[in-house]
Write the structure tokens for this entry.
Amino acid sequence: MTRRRVRIELRIHVLALLFVLAISGIIARLWWVQVAHGALWSAKIGSRSQVTVRIPSVRGEIRDRNGITLVQNRASYEVDFYLPEMVRGYKLRNGSVPDVVYTAAVKGMLKEHKIANIVQIVNSAVIPRLQELDLARDYSAQSLAQHYKIDEQVPFTYLEDIDFPTIAKFSEHDVGLPGVDISPKPVRQYIFGALAAHILGYVGAPLEIDKLPDAHEFNFYQPDVEGKSQVELYMDKYLRGAPGRRVLQRSVKNIIEGEVSRQPPTPGDNVYLTIDARIQAIAEDALRAAGRAAVVVVNPNNGDILAMASVPSYDPNTFIPSISGKDWGTLLDDKATPLVNRAISAFPPGSTFKIATSLAGLRKGLANKEFTCTGGVWYGNHYFKCWIAEKGGAHGTLSLADAIKVSCNAFFYQYGNAAGIASIDDTAKMLGLGQKSGIELTDEAPGEIPGPAWMALHHPQEKWSPAQTANVSIGQGYDLVTPLQSAMVIATVANGGIAYYPRLIDRVLTPEGKPALDDDGNPAVPEGPRIRADLRSDFTPQQIELVRHGLWKVVNEAGGTGGAGRLKNVQVAGKTGTAQAMLNGKKDTIAWYTCFAPYDHPKYAMTVMVQGGEHGGSVAAPIATHILEECLAMDAGTFTPKLAVLAPAHKSNPFQMIAKIDYKNTDPSLQTAVDPESADASEPAHEAEIQKVGARPEIRENPDAAGKVRKKSAQGPQQPQPQQEDRRNLFQRLFGIKSKPDANPTPAPRVRSH
């Protein structure tokens, strides 16, 4: 019995020893893996749990010719939902996810698809936690669901451009939600508000992420914004920089624990415009006296655009980071079309076209030819009146310079037919009319210069006749010209006959200040002006001076139609014009004035166009005179334009007819007209060629019922706080060892995410 007891005890001791040895082996192994080589295994585990996120590139700045920044970037914080991470985290906690079935076409066949019900997941697992911290906001559940179906790789922006208190609250609390991240994002800032909005344009999100070259290099894709219109679109290739990369560490619970590494994005190139911000401010301020108008100021000696303004205007900052659907709808529904750049839209030019007609006649040897105005001219069975006939008068026999001075329609009916439509068309094309200028803006209208071939193509039922030529000669009928084209015409006459292409982009520099290069290794913007045509090969200096002198008479001699353009101590030359147009099926009067100064050494050439202006001399000319006066005073050092944030220009009634503009009067639109010139539309007026609205920006959808966040009850039950994650290893937990803080801890992101 004793031996048996000894054997049993021996067996127990052996088993106990084996048990202790086994436990010791396990503990030793755990120590070896988690303590001695813990860093190695953590790195290996971490490498399998890393998330790569694309950091959007930083766009370059847009500056004026003097280096004044017009568009820059500012830091904006947004709360993003990484939807696949949310679905993965929900499934980990609950074992399964709710799903939803929808029907979509696949290769032309309707097919049912089953995906996670992301709206239910967000509303049940994410919103309650955000409500606890008073961070929940209403959102569009429909947009969320659609986003998950199409762009799950792209984070869904839940809150954008959040304020500092919200950022601080996210930073203070450990949100602890898979797929929720707060991150900085560079967004566009148009420093002076609506100033130069129709030149600068706006930006928005790309439409098709999948087609971008690096779309599949990241777990989550934060896209760059792209230019949608005007310079932002035209120079998008250079303004865009290179994206960066974030590598985030994800725990087994799908909570982002920290940022492993970050490669910052590279800024884009800086684009310098030919625009002078000071002159732009002067022009935009002056143009606010009109409801629908445009002005273009150019340097006649090289074609540089110094200012280009259009009213009504808009503030591109309303598009940043996105624009609400309601605000976008308001802009689109506005009948005054504030998004349209009227400076590159086409309108009947009226008597300003007589500059081209004058030159066309000189090519045919009509410099000394005189014609008589008896009040009108018969062509066929139609009597084409001169504007003076409405007042019961006639201009009598006139030479070219005097006909320009009084803007005699009857003279130009006869002069134009003597020159011939072929000469008129050829001269107009040399001046850049009837074709796009190639300016670095989107949706430029080419205008129209009609002739027999044009008529056969567009109106085959009609036959070209002297009556058609008469109408073209005075800028009526089917003629269409943009204010930009008109400014380049007067600039050509001002400089003695060199027709330049307009320049808007002066230079493009890298962030280091070096010239940016195109794909072929050439400078992104060629240096110096570009010449379209040199009229000096077809015209003598005396012929061009004859037209210049006629334009001088318009402003400076008694009886000229442009007396309102006169300036003290400065010789100005110009041409007024008034035209009839059709706008959306209704008649609209277009007032024009185009001019240059000083006469002997031109520095500025300008065109002002006002829709709804009764006469060019009483409406458009005072605007140009006001701009010229302040520009010349600025050059003399006696006036300093103010550069400040500019609110959008929009009159309460932009369709009100304007009879006279007087900057010394508080209500210029109610004055009595004194300009005698008026249009004689001998044929139905042509529809204006209004520039179309730019591409759709990034639109923020309005919250809907499914995305409505219910307010917390004041005495309602408190939601349980999430437990702090025990991040000790098994060996530390087994022996109750507290974890030591890292000597060089990796800073966690501002908010626990994913």
Observations:
- Residues 109 and 268 are 44 Å apart (CA to CA).
- The domain at 50-273+698-734 is CATH 3.90.1310.10 (Penicillin-binding protein 2a (Domain 2)).
